[in-house]
Design brief:
Layout: H1 5-12, H2 14-18, H3 25-32, E1 40-42, H4 44-54, H5 56-71, H6 74-77, E2 82-98, E3 108-129, H7 133-200, H8 205-239, E4 248-250, H9 262-272, H10 274-295, E5 300-314, E6 323-336, H11 344-411, H12 416-450, H13 454-458
Parallel strand pairs: 1-4
Antiparallel strand pairs: 2-3, 3-5, 5-6
Helix pairs in contact: 3-7, 4-7, 5-7, 7-8, 7-10, 7-12, 9-11, 10-11, 11-12
Signal peptide: 1-18
Subcellular location: Cell outer membrane
Pfam family, one: OEP
Length: 461
């Protein structure tokens, strides 16, 4: 028996009531409880697909993932050499005035003396060894890519959970609206019957006025429930990143799985949960930082090379060289050894070790917190299933009571107060059953999110 079958049979199975005439006012009220939904019908899979394509938080994490992928290169890690080209062009236009110590040399007075000096160079710098720090940086960049990937997956799974819960809340509010509408139809029949009996003298005016008051109370409840359904739809539209006033229809059933096993969920959590995976990856990054700190204690060896071209044109006449052109290669090796830096290296090693220990604590704490959440949610899930089974039985009993109460009320052997109590018991049983079904479903959704199986399970619904 599906968990929502009783509500579907008595309240939401519209086609069954349309195929056969109602035989009692209660059946007529159930038939008239049909509330037509407006807009296109969207399934849960449609809602999830739309949200994943439009959600801005997911787009942000996806762009961050792209940035991490772009940064994961050999050049960014410092493994590849760097090559720079330089061009320098110096020009001068001067008025040259010179006198000389030698008496036989005439003074010089030359305007517009032009001098030009052009230098073109290529400089190569390649770090051959720096304590393997470049390889550690490359490992760190790879871990950062993995962290960005699991963060994106965590955001996707959280979005799927929020959309699924919101979608089923719309279904719940629709079912509650149908139940309230059914109660209003029953109150309308009771009001009509009380009015007719009052007019013929069978009922007192108090019974008629009481029926009218109860009808108004149920009408107010219907208006309030219509608002609740509207708000639930607005929230779902917001998660789908579209106009909040967009009208749509949903499936009117909630099917709850009753076969989830705690151990299987725990195994999936340990191996797949993105929050736990991110904590483990952060621990690896902290370990790499320890290696990077220690690498600064080792020597650094750089290979230097370059090519230079210089062209000089001097018209000043005050040097022995009027024009010159030089070109050639340069090369060499630069080595540096850290000897003392004010004890900062020891501080860096200590900080890196403490950060690694903190990352390990955070990973262990994340594992404990996730296991706690899984255990508590699973207990809630099992309890909700038990409550749902009880509410199904209660609803069956109250449905029988309301039929019996109708016959007794029509024959005058049941007071209006007694009939109202039976009617309210029916509505309360319906609402409790609807809420129990929804609570069971939300617990199931959270279990699937924690075990990181939510996209596979709910995406097919």
């Amino acid at each position: 028996m599906k968990l929502s079958s009783w509500i579907l049979f008595t309240c939401l199975s519209f086609s069954a009531f349309a195929q056969q005439p109602a035989q009692t006012p209660i059946q007529r009220a159930l038939r008239n409880a049909t509330i037509m939904q407006q807009g296109e019908v969207i399934t849960l899979a449609d809602a999830i697909q739309t949200a994943l394509a439009q959600n801005y938080q997911i787009k942000v994490t996806q762009t961050q993932q792209q940035v991490a992928a772009y940064n994961n290169t050999l050049g960014n890690a410092g493994i590849l050499p760097t090559l720079f080209g330089n061009l320098t062009n110096n020009n001068s236009n001067q008025h040259l005035r010179q006198t000389y110590l030698v008496p036989t040399t005439s003074p010089t007075d030359r305007p517009g003396v032009i001098s030009k000096n052009t230098t073109i160079s290529l400089n190569l710098n390649w770090t051959i060894f720096n304590g393997f720090a470049t390889f550690y940086v490359l490992d760190q960049l790879k871990e950062l890519v993995r962290i960005s990937e699991v963060n994106t997956r965590a955001n996707i799974e959280a979005t799927v959970a929020r959309v699924s819960t919101s979608y089923y809340d719309v279904v719940r509010q629709l079912q509650r609206l149908l139940a309230v509408r059914q109660a209003l139809d029953i109150s309308q029949y009771r009001l009509d019957l009380a009015k007719t009996n009052f007019e013929v003298g069978s009922f007192s005016k108090v019974d008629y006025l009481t029926a009218q008051v109860d009808y108004n109370v149920d009408s107010a409840a219907l208006i309030a429930q219509q608002l609740a359904l509207s708000n639930a739809k607005i929230l779902l539209n917001a998660l789908l990143v579209r106009d909040p006033s967009t009208e749509f229809a949903v499936r009117d059933t909630i099917l709850v799985r009753s076969n989830l096993a705690l151990e299987q969920l725990r195994e999936s959590l340990i191996s797949n949960n993105p929050l736990l995976a991110a904590a483990v990856l952060n621990r690896r990054v902290a370990d790499i930082n320890i290696k990077l700190a220690k690498a600064q204690q080792l020597p650094t060896l750089n290979l230097l090379s370059g090519y230079t071209y210089t062209n000089t044109n001097n018209q000043g006449g005050n040097t022995t060289v009027a024009t010159a052109r030089n070109n050639g290669f340069t090369y060499g090796i630069q080595a540096s050894v850290p000897i003392f830096n004010g004890f900062n290296q020891r501080r860096l090693n200590q900080v890196a070790s403490v950060n690694a220990l903190a990352a390990e604590y955070q990973a262990n704490d994340q594992r404990v917190q996730l296991d706690l959440a899984l255990t508590q949610t699973y207990q809630q899930y099992k309890t909700n299933l038990q409550l749902l089974s009880l509410e199904i039985q209660n609803y069956k009993i109250t449905t029988q009571n309301v039929d019996i109460a109708y016959d007794r009320y029509r024959l005058g052997t049941l007071t209006a107060v007694g009939f109202r109590d039976v009617q309210r018991n029916l509505l309360d049983a319906q609402l409790r059953l609807i809420d129990a079904e929804f609570n069971s479903k939300t617990a199931e959704i959270e279990l699937l999110r924690l075990s990181s199986t939510i996209t596979q399970e709910l995406g097919r619904q």
